[in-house]
Amino acid sequence: MEDLSYYEILEIERNADKTVIKKAYRAMAKKYHPDKNAGNSEAEHKFKLCNEAYQCLSDEKQRSIYDRYGKEGLQGMGGGNRRSSGGFDDLGSMFEDMFNGFSGGGRSGRQNPADFDKYPLDMNVDMKISFHEAVFGCEKEVEFQYKDACKPCKATGAKDGKLSACRGCNGQGQVYMKQGFMTFSQTCPECEGTGAAPTTRCDKCKGAGYTKKKDKVSIKIPKGIDNENRLRVSGQGNIGKRGNRGDLYVTFAVTPDKHFIRSANDIYIEIPVFFTQAITGETLTIPSLTGELELKLDVGTKDKQHFTFRGEGIDDVHGHGKGNLVAQVNLTYPDKINSEQKELIQQLQESFGIESKPHEGVLDSAIDKMKSWFK
Fold first, then answer.
1. What is the rounded CA–CA span in Å between residue 112 and residue 159?
2. CATH classification of 260-332, choosing from 3.90.1150.10, 2.60.120.380, 2.60.40.10, 2.60.260.20?
3. Which of 81, 336, 302, 127 is nearest to 219 (CA)?
4. Which residues, 6+ apart, have CB-to-CB distance to 8 below 8 Å?
5. What is the reported pTM?
6. What is the pLDDT along the chain (375 residues), one digit of tens a residue?
7. At the topology level of CATH, where does 6-99 sit?
8. Strand residues in the chain grouped as ranges (E)
9. Angle between helices 18-32 and 88-99 (to 10 degrees)
């Protein structure tokens, strides 16, 4: 990324105005900001390059010099890293908007511990279902564990609900780190931004602020559910400190079928066909999702040829019609033939006359040309 120009780093045209430059910088800085890429050194490096590019291009004087002489022309000005009328002064307000805290000033984003749930109320469980269950729908029982706010500590994790200032952030809810000339704030990992910590841990929940409980619920899985589809079960999630309960989300993993291959709402099945069946265009009985179908081969059916049966696929999970069944022909040939079979095949070939030797007319001129190379 160092080899890219400042315009390429921010992914803008050379004639971009200040508004476009600022908008591009905000997007790139948000994408690579250290708070969103913890431990990612590559993102941290890109973030610094974006800052450098913006500070130069947002200042008319620096940009003019850069456009004429490149980065070398800026060396006498601090390489584009000095305070400028359009660059550094804008960064504070930008990062206040994006990350709630820059250079130690602005809003801290701190929450009142009394209003803070220590865990998300919505939760997810994964469920494996068979191919058949996904296609036709079914009713299943889901067993899961949910979090319930600890009553003795009022979901704070502290004995009798007594909290004191967090030692990690001195009650600020934010911790600060320096990167070069810039200072960034991020949510305190010890108190999760509340600024408070238990004076003594609650005996019942061991400081977690919640206890885990087992439950089960019956759900109706609709026809056509697919891998990674989610089903929401309202009011079956975690319970917060005020008794409000989130939702349970069930994410499905569908076991593949031995014969049918799914692609969206379409179903594919491979049909082994002996070469003589393909030549004569036989009619075969093949399986479908709902029973048997008749597959009429074309005379001279080709390998990998597709035959489509409309509306014989999977019901759309949202009720938007039905997919198709696609039968793919896989031609097979004998591993060996006896003398009688060989004679019969030769007789069949001769009965087609010149049609049975298509290579001769096509390749004769190529063979003659090749021979001329060695005269």
1. 18
2. 2.60.260.20
3. 127
4. none
5. 0.59
6. 556 788 888 889 888 898 899 888 888 888 888 777 777 878 888 888 888 888 889 888 888 888 877 777 776 554 444 444 444 445 544 544 454 434 334 444 444 554 567 788 999 999 999 999 999 999 999 999 999 999 998 888 888 878 888 888 888 878 887 766 677 778 887 777 778 888 888 989 988 889 999 999 999 999 999 999 999 999 999 999 889 999 999 999 999 999 999 999 999 999 999 999 999 999 999 999 999 999 999 999 999 999 999 999 999 999 999 999 999 999 999 999 999 999 998 898 888 876 767 666 666 677 677 777 876
7. Helix Hairpins (1.10.287)
8. 123-129, 138-149, 163-165, 174-179, 182-187, 196-198, 210-221, 230-233, 248-254, 260-263, 266-274, 283-287, 292-296, 306-309, 325-332
9. 50
Residue with tokens 């805290």: 101
**202, 153 contact by CB (below 8 A):** yes
Structure tokens that stand for 306 in this block: 């597709």
- Non-local CB neighbours of 249 within 8 Å, separated by 6+ positions: 122, 123, 124, 125, 230, 231, 232, 233
How many residues comprise the chain? 375
User: Is there a shared CATH topology between the 6-99 domain and the 260-332 domain?
Assistant: no
Question: For residues 237 and 243, what is the distance between their CA atoms, to the nearest angstrom?
Answer: 11
Class of domain 123-254: mainly beta
What residue spans define the domains of the chain?
6-99, 123-254, 260-332, 339-372
* Closest residue by Cα to residue 16 from 8, 275, 336, 218: 8
240, 166 in Cβ contact below 8 A?
Answer: no
